[in-house]
Write a structure and sequence with these properties.
alpha/beta, Rossmann fold, 5-stranded parallel sheet, 8 helices, 13% strand, binds adenosine-5'-triphosphate, binds magnesium ion
Length: 212
């Protein structure tokens, strides 16, 4: 049996990492074999690329360099970790994936959505998540949570107009792929969100098992 690839997406500080960890714990308790990972990163090489991308010292980074570095990290991640885990029947929980590149580098920076998508399809050999939870949090709320957390990375330092384009980009993606992308209201409590994600993920995994 092949595994299941689940991702979380959404603005900075929306609660993605918090919920992914809680979901990983619950699915593990239910007996699923879980691999929890993140982007950019997830591998030794990916983590080196992550520090390059996010380092606030590198203000001179060219936008296409940024797009390609995300895609390079993703290629390594998919080939070294994600595909082998899926082939072994595991459930891969990944913090951000291609949707984030389309939202941040496509909609946010103003690059052609098709170009960003195509670069990433090449990088991943067209791997797409089976299910995605998109955390819906306004720019104002996202900023508030980021400020509460302290130092901002290079991408987080971008202005509100950028953040607004990213936010709207994510919502456009959710409209285009309503089957895969589940929109969740990120202003709810951590507990309420956890309940929603667990219910959906368990039902989805059971359905896949029945169909396989
Ligand atoms: N449902 C929630 N309600 C209020 N605060 C929350 C909620 N979920 C997470 N937080 C808080 O918001 C902050 C950001 O959470 P978290 O790191 O999980 O977000 P994230 O989406 O992973 O952010 P990033 O995109 O920067 O990685 C943390 O301080 C966390 O405790
Ligand atoms: Mg996070």
């Amino acid at each position: 049996m092949t595994g299941t690839f689940i991702t979380v997406e959404g603005p900075d500080g929306a609660g993605k990492t918090t919920q992914l960890q809680l979901l990983a714990d619950r699915l593990t308790a239910e007996g699923y074999d879980i691999v929890m990972t993140r982007e950019p990163g997830g591998t030794r090489i990916g983590n080196e690329i992550r520090s390059l991308i996010l380092n606030p010292d590198f203000q001179e980074m060219d936008e296409m360099t940024e797009i390609l570095l995300y895609a390079a990290s993703r290629a390594q991640h998919v080939n070294e970790l994600i595909r082998p885990a899926l082939a072994a029947g595991k459930v891969v929980l990944c913090d951000r994936f291609i949707d984030a590149s389309i939202a941040y580098q496509g909609y946010g920076l103003g690059y052609s959505i098709e170009q960003v998508r195509s670069i990433n399809q090449q990088a991943t050999n067209e791997l797409s998540p089976d299910r995605t939870y998109l955390f819906n949090l306004s720019v104002a709320d996202s900023k508030q949570r980021m400020m509460d957390r302290g130092a901002l990375d290079r991408i987080e330092q971008r202005d509100d107009a950028f953040r607004q384009r990213v936010y709207e980009g994510f919502l456009t993606l959710a409209e285009q792929e309503p089957e895969r992308i589940q929109l969740v209201d990120a202003t709810q409590s951590i507990k309420a969100l956890h309940t929603i994600l667990c219910q959906d993920a368990l039902a989805y995994l059971k359905k896949r098992e029945r169909l396989s």
